[in-house]
Design brief:
This is Glycosyl hydrolase. It contains 13 helices and 17 strands. With 385 residues, it is α+β, with helices and mostly antiparallel strands.
Length: 385
């Protein structure tokens, strides 16, 4: 019997720092000066090119999930990290703490579902909850009344993407200008010498010295305003992410790249992280055929597990909603309807049907009542892709 795993993908500051202290496998240094396949910015569209979710026949399931999220998982500060409340005192976000990750996923959903009123409402909530002088705080604790002084680059970029998409979808130049403004802030604090880093600590005035590959949102970087260092940034970050490819035998990606060590650092291969990396590459037409073939095979078999060894052996029998949601997004992005539909159907197996209590419509564990934001919001977004 397959087990269901629930885990938010955000690698928080403490976990990131701790991971750097552990022994990790050191891989060869990539060549980042001139990627073999540079991004052709001129052919990128702001909004996704496909929208298989529109005619997927999952309107009922999407409506039930939306009702759960809006009715049970959303509070005055944003989307709860977990439906079950805690004292909000852990190193990682728990309970009704809120994450910029969740806000950015919800904003992208608002755009893709074509709801300008919801987008504006959710943006104002996110702005009041997360906006710092140097970025978006990755986490806010209502019980502690604590806004963490650290951002997460992947979530800032997703937030910026939502403004570019909203500007295009809703014909609002003010959103596009906002995207440009936040892009300039991002480039000031999360980029140094053309290299992007995971976070900037506003309180300490410090950046970290590595990049997690799934944080490298190449399309959003490409949408940013032109400037003297933009091509350098795109070139170097494309080189780093493509250089993190493991092999054709196991076509996933390393976890992070350390600038000081000039090496990839990976303990085990996290599937959600690799799928996010493959999605980012597919958005700029740089996905590897071997990666797509591997994902399609595993989705068909229902065997896309949460962690793997470097040889491609599963190191857990856990699967998750988010894994299949991300596979669906990859399918839609590359124009592969079969992959999209197969992935959505696999994802669907984890949704609690309508009429089954408080968790009806949710992607949750009925036995424990656990319902995590990342699983539910990635599923919601996948329904719109």
């Amino acid at each position: 019997m397959k087990k269901l795993a629930f885990a938010a993908v955000l690698i928080v500051l403490v976990a990131l720092l701790d991971s750097c202290r552990r022994s990790e496998s050191v891989q060869p240094v990539p060549s980042t000066s001139s990627p073999a396949n540079p991004i052709d910015v001129s052919v990128l569209s702001v909004l996704p090119e496909h929208a298989y979710g529109k005619d997927s026949g999952k309107d009922k399931e999407q409506s039930a999930l939306t009702a759960f999220i809006r009715g049970k998982l959303q509070g005055s500060h944003g989307i709860f990290t977990n439906l079950i409340e805690t004292q909000q005192e852990s190193e990682s976000a728990t309970g009704h703490e809120v994450l910029s990750e969740s806000a950015s996923l919800l904003l992208r959903y608002d755009v893709l579902s074509g709801d300008p009123q919801r987008f504006e409402q959710d943006w104002q909530t996110a702005r009041q909850t997360f906006d710092l002088d140097t970025g978006f705080s990755y986490r806010y604790s209502p019980k502690q009344d604590k806004r963490y002084p650290v951002n997460a680059a992947v979530d800032d970029l997703r937030m910026i993407r939502s403004f570019y998409e909203a500007g295009k979808r809703f014909d609002r130049e003010d959103y596009t200008r906002l995207a440009d403004d936040y892009s300039r802030r991002f480039l000031k604090y999360n980029v140094q010498d053309g290299y992007m880093v995971d976070f900037y600590n506003e309180q300490a005035g410090e950046r970290n010295s590595f990049i997690t590959l799934c944080y490298i949102d190449l399309k959003t970087l490409a949408l940013m305003p032109d400037g003297p260092d933009k091509q350098k940034l795109l070139s170097q970050m494309t080189g780093i992410v493509t250089g993190g490819y493991i092999s054709d035998d196991f076509p996933f990606y390393h976890t992070r790249y350390d600038y000081k060590k000039q090496a990839y650092l990976t303990e085990s291969v996290n599937t959600v992280e690799s799928l996010l990396t493959i999605l980012a590459l597919s958005e700029v037409h740089l996905e590897r055929p071997a990666s797509i073939a591997y994902i399609k095979e595993k989705v068909k078999a229902g065997e896309l597990y949460g962690k793997y060894s470097f040889k491609g052996q599963p190191s857990t029998d856990l699967q998750s909603t988010a894994i299949y949601a991300l596979a669906a997004m990859i399918g839609s992005t590359i124009g592969d309807r079969e992959l999209y539909e197969d992935s959505i159907n696999r994802m669907q197996a984890y949704q609690i049907p309508a009429g089954q209590g408080e968790l009806a419509g949710a992607f949750a564990d009925a036995a424990t009542g656990q319902a995590y934001s990342f699983d539910n919001l990635t599923a919601l977004l996948a329904y719109q892709y």
